[in-house]
């Protein structure tokens, strides 16, 4: 941008600018997500115009209608001219999409065998000939797969890739790719930072808000195929006849987009909602209650996905209230659902009310590993990525690789509860990749978490992944305009965890912001650096939980929460000698929940990666680290480095002035300014606090 224009952008109210510059005025508030479909510029669209002439979708079902509309809208938008819909592939350049069952033209290609192998969600995209004319074919054995293929095809054009010699075969690596909504029936969202719940419970089932279709469409565009509608801290009423009708209306709305609904279940429902005197999972009346409930649900929602359960944790009821195990609790639900094909996702996030563990991170492993093999085949155990609670950095959860006879769902948190909520730019794909790529050594080297989650290590087809959603009623869906990237990246990784964080960021920026190489390069760099910067300015070197009740602001001094494991002091263990939680063999022993050689490596302070040093070790202030600095100096260095990186975000973002629409530009600018100021607060507060133990001067840099 010319400097005179840049100057203008600083001085003028943003809404006047487009008019003055002669640009079209359009509300660009982030609502359209990555599905904007704005016209490519002339040079970029010419090759596509030559290859694309019409949309041909022969099916008549609701899903086929959605497919046709998406292709028509997407292609017409991107090519800057109406692309007609036709029933025949009579002109060269048809975009033919569908399944052999709903499209005679696709059936005539003889691709059934390949399509069957890719499954109903997989697809082929090929440039081929139909009746002697070149065509672009998007084919799947199932309607969901055809829609996923269409979004793939559109993405190629949105991101400026060639469609000349297309030959794509895709299938998802994980079967259940779910969002978990922690939405309450009163419309609030636990750990939600983007407004209120999208589910308009009060108006349902009579009125389904149009926004819900946009939600389902966005999920379909990234391959998400299920949503758990309500908070894991579940009200029993969500299973009442009244609410099930509302759930059924949502299920009907989402179905054509390939999104199935699931519910969180409160396991005391037989008592709280029914009139049984007990919710003991081994009581025959309780089992009957769950069977009847499952029958009632499936009569309304024939493709209901199943139940997610948080039991015996943070005040939730559970089988242990009756002296039963988690397996006994899960199995009674599983038996009720299995005749209908439903599953139970039983969470491993557990710690107890009256019993604060010496080391809380050890709890889930101790509870669940002995139960391996005792769950019904339609039960998943769902574990968070790390053993504590979605901290900026944790080692992977030791259950991955420790329960070979139980399918495990990996629970990631898209909403940034501990990572700056909707104020800080933190791109989470790098963190999730670190987790998915971590080698558990469960079956020797090369036993990455991803291979456990996608079933490759144990030859398992029952697979799943969950992301705690960051969506809400905010116009831009996720609060921070750039937090949409985390919803997007979650879906893309759930589909194919081999994609890199960098590739996904590049796609998302081009689709959501701009194809200008400078914008792409600048934003991508910021995104890729953001998670490590956040770790550095908040909890470097393996520190964790340095927060208070809001889970946002620095509070390393917090030592008086209602329970010790809600404080910060429980975790950092700072004293005049040093800093960190000793989880070695000489300490809590948590390190031995991991396989060798990892446990040996992490047990040794000289070999342990410094990123996890204070997670596993209490180290003296003068211990030498790899940089040559002492622990104290390195700590100060990291806090400084993180805060400094974010202050450069401010300049980098400003360098894009004029290259991005004003409304979103200013919204991000405001957020980054706050982030940079918060990062300085974190640095000041934590360095000063830890200095009261280290009693050493701050290094000059
Ligand atoms: O991260 C913690 C949150 C709780 C949450 C809990 C859980 C839904 O602070 O808000 O409850 O974990 O995952 O169950």
Give a verbal description of the structure.
This protein has 701 residues and is of the alpha/beta class. It has 3 domains: 37-170, Chitobiase/beta-hexosaminidase domain 2-like (Chitobiase, domain 2); 176-284 and 296-350 and 357-512, Alpha-Beta Barrel (TIM Barrel); 536-581 and 618-694, Alpha-d-glucuronidase, C-terminal Domain. Helices cover 38% and strands 10% of the residues. The strands form 3 sheets. An 8-stranded parallel barrel has the order 7-8-9-10-11-12-13-14. Helix 4 (62-79) links the parallel strand 1 and strand 2 (85-86). Mean pLDDT is 95; it is low at 1-25. 4-O-methyl-beta-D-glucopyranuronic acid is lined by residues 182, 190-191, 232-233, 310, 349, 389-390, 417.
CATH-level-2 architecture of the largest domain: Alpha-Beta Barrel
Query: How many domains make up the 3D coordinates?
Result: 3
Structural class: alpha/beta
Average predicted confidence as pLDDT: 95
Q: Note the main sheet.
A: 8 strands, parallel, barrel
The hetero compounds bound to this protein are: 4-O-methyl-beta-D-glucopyranuronic acid
Task: Report helical residue fraction.
Answer: 25-40%
Percentage beta strand? 5-15%
CATH class category name of the largest domain: Alpha Beta
| CA gyration radius, whole angstroms | 26 Å
- Tell me, what's the shape? globular
Largest beta sheet: strand ordering: 7-8-9-10-11-12-13-14
| N-to-C CA distance | 35 Å
* Alpha plus pi helix count: 23
Contiguous uncertain segments of 5+ residues: 1-25
């Amino acid at each position: 941008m010319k400097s005179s224009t840049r100057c203008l952008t600083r001085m003028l109210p943003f809404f006047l600018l487009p008019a003055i510059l002669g640009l079209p005025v359009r509300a660009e508030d982030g609502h359209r997500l990555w599905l904007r479909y704005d016209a490519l510029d002339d040079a970029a669209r010419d090759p596509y115009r030559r290859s694309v002439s019409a949309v041909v979708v022969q099916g008549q079902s609701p899903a086929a209608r959605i497919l046709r509309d998406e292709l028509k809208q997407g292609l017409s938008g991107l090519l800057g001219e109406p692309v007609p819909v036709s029933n025949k592939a009579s002109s060269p350049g048809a975009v033919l999409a569908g399944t052999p069952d709903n499209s005679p033209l696709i059936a005539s290609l003889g691709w059934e065998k390949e399509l069957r192998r890719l499954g109903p969600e997989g697809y082929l995209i090929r440039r081929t000939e139909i009746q002697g004319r070149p065509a672009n074919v998007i084919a799947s054995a199932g309607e969901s797969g055809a829609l996923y293929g269409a979004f793939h095809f559109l993405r190629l054009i949105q991101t400026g890739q060639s469609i000349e010699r297309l030959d794509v075969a895709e299938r998802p690596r994980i079967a259940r790719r779910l969002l978990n909504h922690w939405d309450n029936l009163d419309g609030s969202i636990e750990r939600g930072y983007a407004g209120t719940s999208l589910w308009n419970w009060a108006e349902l089932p009579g009125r389904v808000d149009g926004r819900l279709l946009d939600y389902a469409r966005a999920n379909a565009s990234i391959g998400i195929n299920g949503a758990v509608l309500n908070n894991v801290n579940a009200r029993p009423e969500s299973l009442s006849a009244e609410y099930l009708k509302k759930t059924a209306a949502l299920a009907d709305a989402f179905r054509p987009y390939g999104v199935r609904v699931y519910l969180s279940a409160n396991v005391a429902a037989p008592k709280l909602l029914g009139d049984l005197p007990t919710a003991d999972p081994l009581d025959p009346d309780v089992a009957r209650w769950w069977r009847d409930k499952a029958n009632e649900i499936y009569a309304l929602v024939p493709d209901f996905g199943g139940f997610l359960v948080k039991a015996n944790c943070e005040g939730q009821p559970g089988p242990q209230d009756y002296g039963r195990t988690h397996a006994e609790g899960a199995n009674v639900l599983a038996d009720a659902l299995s005749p209908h094909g439903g599953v139970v996702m039983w969470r491993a996030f557990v710690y107890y009310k009256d019993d604060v563990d010496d080391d809380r991170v050890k709890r889930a492993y101790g509870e669940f590993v002995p139960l391996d093999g005792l769950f019904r085949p339609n039960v998943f155990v769902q574990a968070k990525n790390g053993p504590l609670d979605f901290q900026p950095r944790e080692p992977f959860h030791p259950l991955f690789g420790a329960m070979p006879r139980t399918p495990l769902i990996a629970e990631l948190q898209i909403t940034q509860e501990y990572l700056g909520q909707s104020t800080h730019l933190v791109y989470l794909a790098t963190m999730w990749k670190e987790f998915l790529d971590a080698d558990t050594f469960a079956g020797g080297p090369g036993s990455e978490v991803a291979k456990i989650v996608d079933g490759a290590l144990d030859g398992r087809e029952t697979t799943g992944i969950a992301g705690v959603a960051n969506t809400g009623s905010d116009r831009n869906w996720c609060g921070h305009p750039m937090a949409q990237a985390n919803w997007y990246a979650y879906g893309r990784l759930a589909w194919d965890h081999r994609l890199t964080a960098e590739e996904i960021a590049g796609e998302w920026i081009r689709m959501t912001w701009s194809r200008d190489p400078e914008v792409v390069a600048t934003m991508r760099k910021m995104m890729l650096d953001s998670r490590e910067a956040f770790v550095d300015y908040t909890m470097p070197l393996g520190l964790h939980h340095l927060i208070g009740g809001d889970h946002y602001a620095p509070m390393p001094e917090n030592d008086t929460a209602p329970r010790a494991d809600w404080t910060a002091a429980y975790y950092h263990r700072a004293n005049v000698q040093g800093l960190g939680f000793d989880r070695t063999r000489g300490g809590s022993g948590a390190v031995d929940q991991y396989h060798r050689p990892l446990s040996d490596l992490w047990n040794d302070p000289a070999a342990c990666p410094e990123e996890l040093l204070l997670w596993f070790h209490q180290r003296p202030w003068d211990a030498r680290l790899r940089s040559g600095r002492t622990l104290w100096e390195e700590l100060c260095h990291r806090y400084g480095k993180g805060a400094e990186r974010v202050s450069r975000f401010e300049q980098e973002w400003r360098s894009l002035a004029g290259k991005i629409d004003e409304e979103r530009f200013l919204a991000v600018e405001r957020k980054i300014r706050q982030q940079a100021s918060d990062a300085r607060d974190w640095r000041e507060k934590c360095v000063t606090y830890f200095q009261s133990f280290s009693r050493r001067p701050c290094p000059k840099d």
